[in-house]
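Sanity check record (used in CI):
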Amino acid sequence: MMESYDVIVIGAGPGGYNAAIRAGQLGLKVACVEGRETLGGTCLNVGCMPSKALLHASELYAAASGGEFARLGIRVSPELDLAQMMKQKDESVAALTRGVEFLFRKHKVQWIKGWARLQGEGRVGVDLADGGHAQLEARDIVIATGSEPAPLPGVPVDNQRILDSTGALELAEVPRHLVVIGAGVIGLELGSVWRRLGARVTVLEYLERICPGLDGETARTLQRALTRQGMRFRLGTRVVAARSGEQGVELDLQPAAGGATESLQADYVLVAIGRRPYTEGLGLETVGLASDRRGMLENQGQRSAAPGVWVIGDVTSGPMLAHKAEEEAIVCIERIAGHAAEMNAEVIPSVIYTQPEVASVGLGEEQLQAARREYKVGRFPFSANSRAKINHESEGFIKILSDARSDQVLGVHMVGPGVSEMIGEACVAMEFSASAEDLALTCHPHPTRSEALRQAAMDVHGRAMQN
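Expected output for Dihydrolipoyl dehydrogenase:
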């Protein structure tokens, strides 16, 4: 029997579950097909959320064991209970997944537990988790199947010794030596977790810099900070092969520019070279769709080339970020419902949850220079911010880039304490085409780290008052 819906959403990650919830809010009959045992996708189950739980716990452990607490007059003798740290991480994730289930019930979203495959225009077949099969139809179908870790030829992931990001969140022991392949967001965040817990961490990167795409000055500042924390970086290095055994992994390395091969030993290796869209077995050919060479599905305003098929999240172009998927989900469903909706793809923030944190939105200096666009720069260091200094967290800075003529804010880049919670102000400013002067003339509470943003805006015009 064919079950009919207004909208079928395939995938229940941040894009999928937000699309389904918004459809329910708008009164549409909606089903969300997800084969995982819990809702939330990679982000909630084995990505964003569990990694943040370990980042937070490891930061507290490092503060307690590294003398930071003693400096504040707090005497402790910390002992690492890794099993309990993992347990609290899992409990936190479970609570969040139950929260999404509650929202599905609240907004009358039917969760169909299984794996979907397109079967022609307006039709979806589902292999149910209980072994059965279901046939669904809808006027509109939203593909939100997310992404998976990108493989590295010659380095087979087994999640025993050679790990992907999921495996690195489940280790039962602190590595003696963890080698991270890839100096991007995932590699640096997870590498920093295990470094704080006591591992020796070596980061290998094919390029001559960390965090490709990040503003160069910001990336260099982060690398210096992580190096001071004990992480070792080998840039311009290619991993040729890896062989795992009971006791560890042997890697073959070469200079990216070519040269002799050398060996490197580790007891665990994390492969974190990025992610790729996941559309395997989805039946795209039945509706005339095909992914491009990067595995992505082309679209115009989330609408694919196939009638009634929409695409959001990691299967589309742009950064693979949960909040970007959520924005696309809202725009997609609003358009399905016949409402006007737009998304400003130029104002999508990114965050690296290391210590110090990194947050940015808009264009970096290298991008502006490549576009031959004239711009002004304002900087303010956290070493001159009273709240950061009193908290002994004065590493980093805020940088604002504005148009040389109009003063419109073009990009904001931050390295420092708690900047993940500050970048939203910059996003609002850019969304409303604010100038650096607008930020400079806005009163900020004292003493807060947010004052550094205002001072950076003042510095665009050479008027910073606290530096």
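The domain at 162-273 is CATH 3.50.50.60 (FAD/NAD(P)-binding domain). If this sentence no longer matches the regenerated tokens, the check is flagged for review.
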